[in-house]
Give the backbone structure.
Amino acid sequence: MNRLLVQKAIGAATLFLALSFRCPTPAFAADPEVALHFANKGTVVIELFPKQAPKTVAHILELVRKKFYNGIKVHRVEPGFVVQLGDPETKGLPPSQFATHAIGTHGSGTTVPLEAGLPNNKGTVGLARTQDPNSGDSQFYFNLSNNNFLDGKYCVFGKVVRGMNVVEHLQIGDTLLSAEILPQEKPHKTKPKTLLPNKK
């Protein structure tokens, strides 16, 4: 009986070792990145935080996939504070008509609940909203400084990883030509180890 148990244990250990050599271990995927291409200004790349703001990130990515942001213009610039865009009514409008069209009050029509957990540090990207905490939609803002008085009130869902100099030179009326989700690196696979026969 004991001999049978020992044989089963040895067999299970051998199977485990064989599988561990055969099964590759995929690398963890990085957070998604979105490239924003501004006319005559350059490209801004933002890294999104799906773990900290899952519903917000999913919503923004869906809008990007639908090309919602293509052609939208910057409608708010407050030096040392924020740059804001995301109102679809800015498409085709000159800045001189922003006020008459109530620019800054429109969105895609789908809102997400407030996911305010990250600080509004310089270079982060937050979701704009009305006085209703759960009214965030398509409009977002770049923090030009550490605006930590906004913490807990607005959802930070990403940060600028390239092109902060472009953000700092954006002006009202600048056009976001296109937004695209950058391809993520494919998980690499570790090569299975080759077992060499024992020397006799």
Strands lie at 33-38, 42-48, 72-78, 82-85, 124-127, 140-143, 155-162, 175-181. The longest strand covers residues 155-162. Residues 10 and 16 are 10 Å apart (CA to CA).
